[in-house]
Structures are given as C-alpha cells and as structure tokens.
Amino acid sequence: xxxxxxxxxxxxxxxxxxxxxxxxxxxxxxxxxxxxxxxxxxxxxxxxxxxxxxxxxxxxxxxxxxxxxxxxxxxxxxxxxxxxxxxxxxxxxxxxxxxxxxxxxxxxxxxxxxxxxxxxxxxxxxxxxxxxxxxxxxxxxxxxxxxxxxxxxxxxxxxxxxxxxxxxxxxxxxxxxxxxxxxxxxxxxxxxxxxxxxxxxxxxxxxxxxxxxxxxxxxxxxxxxxxxxxxxxxxxxxxxxxxxxxx
Length: 247
Ligand code: HEM
Prior knowledge:
Blueprint: H1 24-27, H2 32-35, H3 41-46, H4 58-65, H5 67-76, H6 79-84, H7 86-107, H8 112-115, H9 125-135, H10 154-182, H11 200-217, H12 222-243
Protoporphyrin IX containing FE binds at residues 5-6, 8, 15, 24, 27-28, 32-33, 59, 62-63, 70, 73-74, 77, 79, 162-164, 166-167, 169-170, 173-174, 236.
C-alpha cells in the first residue's frame, strides 16, 4: 500500500448499523474522510438502518469477507504508477468504463426502484465518459469486458453494487494522492474519482440501509450477496490487470 492511503483493515470499526462507529466517516476518521472537506458528515450521522437482530450486518460481512479481494485490486490500481503518468490514468479510466458501463446495463434491469433504491442516480459510467472527453477526446472506443458478473436477482445485484458504491469511498483518497501530480481535479478529469462529492457519505449510508433491509427481509440470500461481491472484485481485477496502469 502506498504511503498516505488509510488502511482498510478489520481493526477499523465496520459499518455496523446504528452507531457512529458504523459509518464510513468514522471508519476513516484517522485517514481520508477526516481530511476531506467535501464529505457531508450529516449524511453519515443518519446511519444505516438496524439489521435483522437474528443475523449479522451484511455490510460487516461484506467488508470482512471481501477484504483480501480489495487488497488484490488495490495492488492492480497502483497509486504510484497511476500518479506517475496521465496516460496510465487514462488507461485506467478506459478500463473502468469498459467494465462499469456494461455492468450498469445489467444492473439497470433489476427492480431497484420497486424496492426503494434509485439506481439511476448511482450510475457512474457518465462520470468516466466526462473524464475521458476532457483527457482523451480523440481516443479509440473502449473495449468492453466480456467477463462480467451476472446479477440475476437483487441479492446478487446488491453484491455488485456494494463493490462500485464502496469504490467511491477510496476514490476520493486516490484523487487526493494523484490529483496534484497529474494536474487533475474534480472538474478536470477527476469526476469519476470525486464520487458523489459532498454526498458520498450520505449515499454510502443510504446504500447501507437498503442492503441491510433487503437482507433482513431475505436472510437466505445473504451468501449470494457476498458471493456476487467477491466475483465482482475478481472479474474487475482480472479485467484491469489487462487494461490498467502500467500494462
Ligand atoms: C488504489 C486503489 C484503492 C484504494 C487506495 C482504496 C482505498 C479504500 C479506502 C481507504 C477505503 C475505506 C474508506 C472509508 O473507510 O471511508 C475503501 C473502501 C472500499 N473500497 Fe477501495 N480503494 C481502492 C480501490 C478500490 C477499487 C478498485 C474498488 C472496487 C471497484 C474498491 C472498493 C471498495 C469498497 C467496496 C469499499 C468499502 C468497504 C466497506 O467499508 O465495506 N476500492 N477503499
């Protein structure tokens, strides 16, 4: 891990419902969030809804059980290499676009809205397109990842969404570390890595509430959520290993 990156360890408080320690802001208090002026702390304070008292928090499980997958993908998205050249950064954005766009297409087919989550506001491919328009306007079309997870139901969709929603938390850290070196800011090539900007904490908290409520209503699908999250991390890592920075 590069210097300056707060560790995503199990020692940190996990986002367990109903507690200050459960918020991503609290988890990063010694690191990213504390230094991020744009984060909306009020959003975090609402906190995720209580989990089913009979079962563990799904967010806690996800965080714990995908930890090694996160570490593996962090090694591929190597911040030092990324910060060393704009072309590596552009290559990474192109890799993300080739994965996020088709994955979002699949996720959009699930009945999120009927279950209370506005999926449209969670699409991120448009941010990637915006960055690529400003940094690589004449680049060739992006190749599309052929090896995507299959979110056949909301539980598996939740696992996929966990990965891309959680990435907005670390993304802001990455932008802080490489932005100056590359001359990239939130409005100039760093839209994707700015995540939901000041709403990042609130969006993560509301995703958490949705995930906890879904699994509380369908406890038998908890394993499918975690499995889909692991598959998403792994397929994205494989894809970025071939297209990412330094390749
Ligand atoms: C160099 C690359 C990366 C770094 C430095 C990084 C760093 C971090 C950090 C510091 C957090 C914790 C943020 C907080 O507690 O507020 C985090 C959370 C997370 N990151 Fe990353 N990340 C990286 C890449 C990625 C990628 C590529 C993905 C997936 C697309 C990803 C998915 C996640 C998820 C799902 C979480 C939420 C964990 C949880 O609390 O359950 N990260 N990351």
